Amino acid sequence: MRIPANIGQNYARSSRLEWLETNGTGSFAMGTVSGANTRRYHGYLVADAAPPSGRAVWLAKVDETVDGHALGVNQFPSVVHPEGHRLLAEFTMEPNPRWTYQVGGIRLAKSLYLVPGRNIAVIEYAANAPCRLAVRPFLAGRDYHSLRRAGDPPSACHLLAVNGELDPEPAWWRDFEYLIELDRGFDYREDLYTPGVYRFALEPGRAAAVIATLEPDPAIDLAGWRTSRGARGHHPENDFAALRPDGRPTLLAGYPWFTDWGRDTMIALPGLLIGQGRLGEARAIIDAFLAHRHQGLIPNRFPDAGEAPEYNSIDATLWLIVAVAQLDAAGGDVNGLRPVLEAIVAWLRRGTLYNVQVDPADGLLTAGDASTNLTWMDARSHGLPVTSRHGKAVEINALWLNALAYLRDPALVAATQTFQSTFWNGRYLSDCAGDDSLRPNQLLALSLPYPCVPDDQGETILQVIEAELLTPVGLRTLSPQDPRYQGRYQGGPAERDAQYHQGTVWPWLLGPYLSACLRLRPARRSDVEARVARWREETTVGCLGHVAEIYDGDEPHRPAGAPAQAWSLSELLRVERLLAR
Description:
Number of strands: 30
């Protein structure tokens, strides 16, 4: 993860390359290689001061000056000022964000990291020659979904300096512009408060740092903190690890704005934890979600501000059973889980929340009504589902059959027969019973451990999907031949919600597609390897080390949504693991 000078000094490119640094609890730092903040969520310390009140941007950024040469970069109306990216010699992510600037004969290194397990951000500086460094911090002190306007100083974190002194110059700097927020149709201008400038006389070998913390008086231990952070290394799969307010572990669905979602967490477990041999952590997360189950369902979402969990999902619980099956296959501890899963299946059979129940006529799982969206295609517009998939959805029933298979339920054989007669339309699997929309959800019937259709049908399905849904970066959520197809993900929130699953490409779906290819086409393994190599390239062009949430359905498949999505990276890692066997 090295970005050379020719890219770093190109503002159009380096302001689109993002970095992410986490502390293992859910707090994070995030920004761009250029140094300019382009999202309201960017900041050097984005942390939860008092769980479960929600994350806040505390220290938005710092701007430096070295011997009178400005290194900061900010987008203001119609101007980028200063233009410190022009002095950027290199940016790396090993093991944390590190900028190297060349100012005449002075080579200045700036390293940013979060102390593992603590809400402490450290910005360290080192130079190869004596120089004078000025560091101006900018404070936001607001919920990370909002913006600050000039007025009273914001709620502040604690700022400390090592071998530097604060020269007080309190002021508001106005009209920072976050252009990605503009693209997303949100407010995009913010005022930030600066208390002054920290001044350092840098010399080779002499420590210098600015520290932002939510702890009132931490004992400063730069060497120990640096060693602790270095031991974690740069492993993007670790970035999603977090803690619930009760101290239980979880996985965040994505950065910068997602919290932990049951569906996303369970889909991501195999690639982020189970496949990496972290079986105890996977079991702990499964237990944490099961602790919140209600009438057979695990939470779909834990809201930001600590309200009651939401259970408006049918597949989150089914994905948990799949995760348990994979944990079991990997040799993990599943003691005591079978009775719990059997109790969940019993709830689904007799009926639970949101009209979720097994149809006694055919043994298939049905859910919801026209006002609900209980599957992963859950966008809503004007209070109603955009993709209304109530009733018997194909991937829900593929997951249901896999749950029955893992539990060795005698109803499996009959349910498999009715699955095939209900969904097979002669070319592919209908998206829902009675709905022949061509969508990628049917891939789960081919890729999960228990295949739901014969291999010849599976091959036909793959060919249809390849002709209309497959792209180099993921699968379209709707065929371009469908009049409802939306090829661009753009506009304000309402417009984007209407496009979210109507053609937009999702990279996580490459995982089921490539898994199906490996099972049905073992002689064409090299095709899968080539697609995985292309998929891996996506970790170098957006948020470094990560894969975006979504892409446009139309070429050139511009990335959008969250720049670091758990299941996007997890499925890449899972398929890479399959190829390594």
